[in-house]
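pinned: reference chain
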Amino acid sequence: ALDAGSRLSITGIETSHEGLRAEAGPLPEGDRCTGYRVHLTFGPELGEGGFHERVIVRTNSRRDPALAIDVVGAISREVVAVPDRLWFPRTDGTVTRSVFLHRRDGRPLEIRSIEDPTGLLAIEILPAGPSRVEVRVRLSGENPASGVRGSLLIRTDEIVAIPVTIAGADQ
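pinned: its C-alpha cells
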C-alpha cells in the first residue's frame, strides 16, 4: 500500500526459481488505499515438498529500490511418496530401499510404469493395501565409479519424481 501517492511505480520483478512466477498490478478500485498487489503462480517446476524462495520487487524509489519478499510453503499432490528421496551409500554389496506411495483420497492406486534413468536399480512393486503400494528399490551390485544423481519417475494418474543419489566408489 502507498501513502506517497502515485509517484512510486514498479520497474521490475524477479524470482529465485523458474517455477515461481510473479506479476504486479494496481490494487483494485474501491480498496481503502492505493498501491500494488503481487500475484504469485506456482508452476510444476517447483516439484513436491517444501520450498523457500524469494521475490524481488524493483521500484523507482531512491530509498527502497528493491523490496524482497520471502515465499515459504509446501506443495503436495494427490499421490504421496514417503520418503520423498532415496540415497544409496557406498557399499560392496546390495542395498535396498523402499518408497511407499498412497492416495490421499483412499481410491485404488495403480502404478502404470517406473523409469530408472540411472540404469543401476532393480525395482519391485508390492501391494501394501487398497490405496497403498510399496516400491522396493535395490542397488544391483557395486557402486558406480563416481556418484550418480537422477530421479525415479513413477507414473500413476500423475507423475511422482523421487530424487535418487548413489554414492560412487570414489566417495
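why pinned: The mean pLDDT is 85. The two ends are 53 Å apart (CA to CA).
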